[in-house]
From TrEMBL:
SUPFAM superfamilies: P-loop containing nucleoside triphosphate hydrolases, post-AAA+ oligomerization domain-like. Signal peptide: none annotated. Keywords: ATP-binding, Nucleotide-binding. Belongs to the AAA ATPase family. RarA/MGS1/WRNIP1 subfamily. One of its GO terms (molecular function) is ATP binding. This is Replication-associated recombination protein A. It comes from Candidatus Aphodoplasma excrementigallinarum.
Amino acid sequence: MMVPLADMVRPKCLDEVVGQRHILGRGRVLYNLIQKKNVPNMIFYGPSGTGKTTVANIIANSVGKRLYKLNATTASVSDIRAIVSELDTLYNVDGALLYLDEIQNFNKKQQQSLLEFIENGKLTLIASTTENPYFYIYNAILSRSNVFEFKPVEPQEIEAALARAAKILSERMGGIGITFADGVLAFIANVSGGDVRKALNTLEVCAMSAAPDEKGDLHITLSGAEEAAQKKAMRYDRDGDSHYDILSAFQKSIRGSDPDAAVHYLARLLSAGDLISACRRLLVIASEDIGLAYPQAAAITKACVDSAQQLGLPEARIPLAQATLLLATAPKTNSAITAIDAAMRDLETMDVGGVPANLQDSHYSGAAKLGHGQGYLYAHNYENNYVAQQYLPDNIKDRVYYTPGNNKNERAIAAYWDKIKNKDRGEK
């Protein structure tokens, strides 16, 4: 029986794993735990095809423990008892590691059956779930485990995995050449929705269905990739220009308050399976283009993005459409990005000077001798919780970075502070 490509190219070490740099990058927590062979009970949480099983296999090999695998959709308490019965045998002198996939499908009683053995250290549990563990996993298991979130893999990292897989596939097929039309690997990477396994399966179907040329080599076309993925390509080219054109049009349509165009470009992103880019761009837009004109938009957008990532496609389209329409129809201001960019530009181009002495930390012995904190006026001791004093460094003490936008919310903010600050200066 032919081994699926996804299993053939499964990484054997951490350096081969794509994605998850936030937990598996050198110096990160999970990376360090594995390197030190001191692995605690863990729960891996995230979408399918993001490396949860792969990392569990690597851990088992690195710590020298026997690995047992169960899937909670089909396993029962008797399966756990069978594993437990072997814990004190010669097979498991150094203890055993249980990889329990889809643990959310175990009921409370089944999860409780693990407690005694993960507490005494005879059994190290690595459980995986595509659902939020804080909603589906028994608290006693959670309190004894470390939760690590696996995130959808970025397209560029999936593309690198596909290139590696193509070489292995070529070897498996007797060394025949496998070439790709422009944009094919980028397309497969983007339509996979952050799922490496899905991308590899699509690549395998492309190769198996491609007609060999006169030399016996295979050339995979974009139309062939579309057919294999059962999706229409969004015309990603090798450099990603079309992809970024669509993202640009998406943001500019929201900024320009055109909900119809905004939803159109969202649909193009999601039709290509690019959930990650759509989510990231919406989070940016909420602060860059709406900002203080409607501050609640950032929180609402974050909630919609979280829902989308938990749901996955196709259902993710609904909360993302909600966020898109909200942002497209909301009042606009770019005061936040204008302010921070101006402040950062000054840091790069001039000597801004040090923190004023009255603002320096005074909560340590000897601060008073240095003059740190002296003369500071505590705003809450004054009417309206405001008192005029210098906060910016001397070199830029008159700098103005924030200019309120011309929208109802920021006009109200500006009017309020004009009133308070004029009163403080004794003006009417």
